[in-house]
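Bug report

Summary: structure tokens for Glycosyl hydrolase family 32 domain protein differ between web form and batch submission.
Environment: batch mode, default settings.
Steps: 1) Submit the sequence below via batch. 2) Compare with the web form result.

Sequence submitted:
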Amino acid sequence: MNRLLPLVLLALSGAIVCAADNDGELLYNGIRLPHDWPPRDDVKAASREVPPVPYLDAPPAVIPIDVGRQLFVDDFLIEKTTLHRTFHHAEKYEGNPILKPETPEEIHGAYSHAADDPTATACPFDDGVFYDPTDHLFKMWYMGGFWRNTCLATSRDGLHWTRPKLDVQAGTNVVIPFRPDFYRDAFSPWLDWTATNPAERWKAFIYARIAVPGEAKRHGASYLYTSPDGIHWTDTAQVKANVDDNTTIFYNPFRKKWVMSVRRHVPERGRARLYYETDTFPQLAAMKTDDPVFWSGADELDPADPQIPTQKTTQLYCLSPIAYESILLGAFAIHYGPENGECQKGKFPKLTEIELGYSRDGFHFARPDRTSFIAATKREGDWDRGYVRPIGSVCTVVGDRLYFYYSAFSGVAPDGQKHFYAGGSTHVAFLRRDGFASMDADAQDGELLTRPITFQGTHLFVNAAAAKGEVRAEIVNEKGAAIAPFTADNCQPLTADKTLQAVHWKGADDLSALRGRPVRIRFLLKDASLYAFWVSPEATGASHGYVAAGGPGFTGPTDTVGQSAQP
């Protein structure tokens, strides 16, 4: 990080060109999209160069911050700083796996078409974990037996899971049963908070392998499903386009768009992702094969694993985004190899690991940390030896922590048989809320000055670790002068380690006088870490940002409760 120097200098001519090009939709954070959206660039599709992130090169002159906690995962909000940024990784739960193949619906798969197929799995294959506030349950959809059943497990705490006995396949937790002519692959469910028809509260996309009479090879086909309860599903449409396996869907609430994350093999890139958006869920079915635009792939900052000499380049295996606070959080599964044939012959799982990316326009992802957020152990005998992959809903918010659920494969079935798709189990890892990146100061004082921001809220909050030091804040005008009484000297130092802390100034806590006025916030730290800040309209600290796949205490897709959702 530059020391007290602007992080980005914009030439006047460049700013003029950017303004001329960007005459499309205005986003919640001040970013103006280009008129032609999403951008189509077939040249970049074949390149492994690191893609640009336009809003970081040319951020808005003033950034509205009324939606969600403001995270320091990139330099979008920072004008200058002497702090240093640290990226943090998830911590695996000691009780993993939280679900493993044990039932008749899980211990045999369909990969080999044999009755004793060893591809035992009990894990999401994309799928998802959502918290449903209607019955206060975590709900997990997962693959029972490779390519076989779609099952549902439930939990009160997100850690201890039960398999409810349902009526779809009597006495089991199967919600979409296996059929010999229909092998499920990726299943992508979504809790639709915008649904007006209760019968369509849950949406889903499924990629299946379909038996065709007279042909030995199965054909891929994709379908849209709806459900009132996540248990009883109705096939509503077949998607016209040809897509590859592991294609998924998600909803972008910032722009009110349904998006298909299309998996395709791209020349020079191998497995990669294409993008297609619509205004409504049913419109996804009308997508034609040539409609999606190139979106993302592994690039030159994703090096190959030297322990896998047969794999010269990495590939992007999965890309699962979800709205978290003020950003779109992306879970990237990077494929290091080997390819399926080698893994099948050797009877060990392929190597994929999870990294994170962050988007503020819903399309361009910054990936500043290229280390594994959740890694495979690569050790024979471990449940998470390899094939570590994110779930479609990425994470839930549980008090002060984020729960990241993921799948992993051991390569060993319960009966001891080995197969590269055997031993699929479900795991969870934890991260501090907002804890993707922190801006840190050591025992010496450090500071961070935001870019010009506006807000309609009245109370400043931070997520900070300051048990051994302190954090103070002051608000300054366009000339950099402190605005009384919101000065650093008047600020009561924060000296706790909490994910939600109110900033107080002596005799003044209400920021109403500054509503809608461009200001900057200067944070002053000593032996402390700053993860996020936000200005809330309530003294509870409700951020009104998105809470990923939900969590206890939240009643909808956004944080409207603040402190009451804390432990």
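Above is the batch result. After comparison, the two runs are identical; trailing whitespace caused the diff. Residues 1-20 have pLDDT under 50 and may be disordered. The radius of gyration is 24 Å.
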